[in-house]
Amino acid sequence: LSMLLSVPWLSFEPVGSIHLVEGTPAKLSLKAQCNLPEQLRKSCASISFGQCLCGKAAQTQEILFSDCVDERHDISYDGMEPHGHYIVPIVVGNRTLGVIDIYLKEGHIRNRREEDFLITIADTLAGIITRRQAEAEKERLQAQLLQAQKMEAVGHLAGGIAHDFNNILTAIMGFGYILGMKMGKDDPLRLYPQRILSAAERAIQLTQSLLAFSRKQITHPRPVKINLIITEAHKIFHRIIGEDIEVRLVPSNEDIMVKVDANQMEQVLINLATNARDAMPEGGALTIKTRAVDLAEDFIRTHGFGTLQKYALISVSDTGTGMNKDMIEKIFEPFYTTKDIGKGTGLGLAIVYGIIKQHEGFIDVHSEPGKGATFEIYLPATNLLEDEEDRSEAVAAPERGSETILVAEDNAEVRSFVKEILEDSGYTVIEAADGTGAIETFLKHRDEIQLLLLDVIMPKKNGKEAYEEIKSLAPYIKTLFLSGYPSDFVHKKGILEKEHELLLKPVSSHLLLKKVREILDR
After folding, report:
1. How far apart are CA 259 and CA 358, in angstroms?
2. Closest Cα partner for 274 from 366, 182, 344, 362?
3. What sign results for the dihedral spanned by CA atoms 190, 192, 195, 201?
4. What order do you get walking across the sheet with 478-483 strand by strand?
5. Using CA of residue 86, residue 91, residue 93, residue 97, what is the dihedral sign?
6. CA separation for the pair 180, 192 (Å, rounded)
7. Neighbours of 20 (CB within 10 A)
8. Per-residue CA distances from 188 to 147, 185, 191, 301, 517 (Å)
9. What band does 242 get if pLDDT is binned at 50, 70 and 90?
10. Hey, which of 28-32, 200-204, 272-276 has the most confident mean pLDDT?
11. How far is CA 314 from CA 214, 246, 270, 289, in A?
């Protein structure tokens, strides 16, 4: 701008400004000025399209000229000296990027040579701005990609940890159960296996949290009204939010349907409410709104998510301490927390992220220090009707047995627990440490074995491969699979079909015995 105003053969006043379209569409923001009076710096900091000469040039995309601007102008101040103007729009295609405003002496005669020069400058600026915007967009997309890859990698890690941890928990729970079972009811040491099992239950909850983040948790999606979700969650907010926090529900007037696991969505809202509570130690307001939105191409390009379809939007806003940019970038990472040591695991928002992603939705955060935070959840809308069918199913009580069972499990501790619990219930157990061993063992004892109990993922041959080879020799053999991976994973990967019987680790002794007896009695 300074170089432009200093060109000697142009009869410009050494006063001018450059406004660019930034953030809000159809609004100009002052980005550069030279000798602009202080009153105008404030009043011209933001100009809407159509307002004043600058806004009109931006709207019409035409160069505007005036030989006299005085106090009658849209934007003015007391004692403003009359002057002239060249307002030149900075345009690319049909998109206005900004305007150049050059001051002239009052009564200046419009000059085509000057206008052509200013248009050339505007075109040059347009090229520079477009290139910089493209570079900024490229950097933003690269940052989004890196963040997505990081979250995906952490998700795979969390899922892998959960799988191994499930094997460990199966052994801990199993031997704890056996220990308690073999103690007398009046044994003073009976308290300790009970505490072991209680601790294992808490560890299971941690594992489920990791699976939720890694999007490998089992879901039961059903069509449900979005307003019903927030209403049901609101009923239990009083148990987790203090009386000094006001909860406001602003449901949509439209009945928006989404296909989700209602229990998991309730967990999402509870986690967000808990997070909001911790951000408002002195009290405040928590507002939950729902509405339908149709995402536009500009939104998808800017945010890096979504498709051109209808979404249900749940926004959860608090009036708390807010977050800075660095905190927002890390907020969904597991074990990241801004709370004091001992006051949080750092898994609450990681679980939220995982559940929303598993439902093919998106979550966005807006926050500034001292200005609270707003979490926006986008879920694909559906036209399906609600399904009120109750799918719960009771499981028969376990009974003792006398059959022979082949147990193939590569984890020695799990195999040992399963063997002991089955033998204590009257069964005969034959062991194998992998899929190949299971086939070889079955060939030796094929006339004795009534049931295969196979781990899904094993070395040499997995459980499905061992099962198929054994089934070709004994078509009517009964089979039960065990897995430390969730059923969604083993089914989606094609490792196991949905019709196969599957128990997920960590499995309780009670459930294992029930399922074994149920299959053998068919």
Report:
1. 12
2. 344
3. negative
4. 428-432, 404-408, 449-455, 478-483, 502-504
5. negative
6. 8
7. 18
8. 53, 9, 7, 65, 33
9. confident
10. 28-32
11. 22, 18, 13, 6
Name the strand (E) or helix (H) holding 13.
Answer: strand 12-21
Six-digit token string for 206: 């941690």
Which residue type is seen at 250? V
Task: Let me know how long the chain is.
Answer: 522
Which residue bears the tokens 């062991």?
Answer: 431
Which residues lie across from 83 on neighbouring strands? 69
Please provide residue 463's backbone torsions phi and psi, each rounded to the nearest 5 degrees.
Answer: -60, -40
- 76-125 pLDDT, tens digit per residue, is 777 788 888 899 999 998 889 999 999 988 888 888 888 899 999 999 99
Alpha-carbon span 250 to 254, nearest angstrom: 12
Please give the residue that has the higher pLDDT: either 494 or 273: 273
CB 507 within 8 A of CB 482: yes
Calculated CA dihedral for residues 262, 268, 272, 273, nearest 10 degrees:
30
Alpha-carbon distance of 465 to 297, in angstroms, equals 47
